[in-house]
Amino acid sequence: MSLKQLFSDRPPFNAVLQEKAQKIRYSCSPAKCLHSLLSFLPIITWLPKYDWSHSFFGDLSGGLTMAVFSVPQGIALASITGVPPVYGLYTAIFPSFLYIFFGTSKHNALGGFAVLSLMTHGAIEKVMLRTATSYNATAYVNHTLDELFDKENDTIITNTTLMQILGNETSFVEEVTLEMWTEGVTPVKQIHVATTIIFLAGIIQVLMGVFRLQYLTSLFSEQVMSGFVVGGGIHVFFAQIGNMLGIELPRRSGPGYLYYRIWDLIENLDNVHIPTVCISMSSFLFLVIGKEYLAPWLSSAFNYPVPYEFVLVVVGITATNYAELSRRHDVKVVGNIPTEFPPPSLPRFDLIRHIGLNAAAIAITAVAIHITVAKVVEKRYKYKINHGQELYALGFVGVLSSFFPVFPVTSGFARSVVGAAVGGSTQLTCLFSSLALVSVILFIGPALKYLPQCILSAMIIFAQKGMLEKFGELKSLWPVFKIDFAIWLMSFFLTVCYDMGEGLLMAIGFAVLTTIIRTQRPKWHFLSRDDETDHFKETKKRDLERIQGNVCIFRMDAPLIFTSSDRFTMSVWQCVKKWERCKSESFVTIEQMNSDRSADIFESKLKAARRRWKRDQKSDTRCKLVIDCDGFPYVDYLGLSTLKAVYVDLKAAGVQCFFVVQKSELKRLFRATDFYEVVDESQVSPKNTKEVLTALSSIATTDTMLIDEEDNEEDADPEERVTEESENSEEVMSETSVSIGEARSSASSRNSINSEE
């Protein structure tokens, strides 16, 4: 073993290999595997500890209430997605049931979401436009005599035989009509596209959990999501307004389709169906009166929330059935709902290449909404939710649910809280809700076929009221947070002007761009010691004259990277310039002249001017600059090169530069590079920041104390002082003395006038 290896800080290679092997054996041990299984299936942990006597009846009532609310909501979301109504009920059953096994939240309930349904509808329309269509084509087959001759029966080919076989008497060519297909996707149903989207989205969410990418949800800031949700509400409104007015609008999809949808609506205003409009307005008015005026009053009288949507559905079905509105007034209804349970089937994997981007946007949006609801639930019910496990839960639920006819899901705050409001306290609330919905499909499904579609559209549009209330956030953002205000508006306009997925991605890009711009313009400030607390604090430029000594302490609170290195260099020189200019100024501002301490200010200005002149006579050095490196969260290669270049330039300009380094990562960076070959190691202090800055601030103490002693001597012997100064500083101090003397005389005259008044 060499001497270098003997004194090396690195452990031996064999020891490293043994440590790695031991970690692998521990990770593959039965106990570790069991722990991993339990972490993927939280139900194994909490179900044996379930308190049946305390929680069962609360979960039962909460599940039944949630099912009552989910029936009209599921049918309405199915109409947004563009699939038959029964699939909305399936979406409220399967994902919510599967979440019991993988989820860690007691109150989250998975189901459809209006924005996700609209994004899914856009993907479905895109696939349907690319679907291949069939057409008839004529082909000609040239037969030979051997093909037509029947050797067994020795049939002789005559004109009559040719007419019977080929349809002509003169040739052996047969005309055949074939069914051909255009280029595109094999014919597919809308629900098959939706199940493929939720399958691919589930795979993406599982991969996000594997690579611990839940931090990506931080890109979905509150302002981005608020603008996106409000913009999505606008899309939902125009998607449902046709059903409320009884107008059949053409299909539209793609970026900017909303412009064409508005134009289609204007062109078809003459075709408004009056009975449908009357039912829609009556339903909307019922929801407004019930939920805005009666609900607050009835909440104090009943322990259970009144399901106004369910009441509206029951009234609409009854009125349509007995008044025969569908037959007599041509009011469109939901139609037949099958009562059989769907068998599992595989998704259409051939559609993945057409919906990949849509599925990625839906997956990330679902994660962002789910994590946001989870954080709200954490804060409201005071317990911790494992966000990493929630990614796995969403992914596994999506993959397993894709074998049944469902569309993409996420958490909804209203759906998650309604069960808890009536006593639900565990995941079994979703189990009882799913069982109740299965009963609805099997026994009550045929009655739902009389439900008017305009009632569902009225319910959906009324549900967007909560989203539109987010416009109130702009009022609180504008006075202080201008950039967040711009992000909110940009997210809203991009979502409205483009399609949902593209608008969300561009809004995220705009938010990231604002962050990059802000890092390129970091703020810097001076530091000075507070005499009361003995700590260092930020100091404004107008207060620099109160700082004793000639040590300037500089701090920039931003990463020192390639985007901010030029700004850092410019800020350092700007700091030195402002410091030296402030220390050389001897004029008095108007505010200081009008203050009660004007005489003291004049005296301090005169003494400061004398001190600066004597200090300049003793030394040729400029100010001493201290750079507090604790303001740098991290430093890259260009940032480190900038620090060295600034040090060299300051030294060449006669400015002594010191670095205060307390972070261990930055210390290791200095030692691992050639930093100390350029910068003297004595100029870099690794001590505590407070102690270092205090020590460096005391550099000018000797000069200050000497000047104070000389001032005292001058006060004791004024004749000697005048004689000495007249020889050396008559010409230098004349301008300063005159300016301060004039200001003093004007201030004294002003004070005398004020006293007479």
TrEMBL record:
GO MF, any single term: secondary active sulfate transmembrane transporter activity
Composition-biased stretches (Low complexity): 734-757
Alphabetized CDD domains for the sequence: STAS_SulP_like_sulfate_transporter (cd07042)
PROSITE patterns named among the record's database cross-references: SLC26A, STAS
Keyword list, A-Z: Membrane, Transmembrane, Transmembrane helix
Positions with biased composition (Acidic residues): 706-718
Every STAS domain range: 550-695
Membrane topology of the entry: Multi-pass membrane protein
Claim: Transmembrane is one of the keywords in the record: yes
Entry annotated with the keyword Transmembrane helix: yes
Subcellular location: Membrane
Protein name (record): STAS domain-containing protein
Source lineage: Eukaryota, Metazoa, Ecdysozoa, Nematoda, Chromadorea
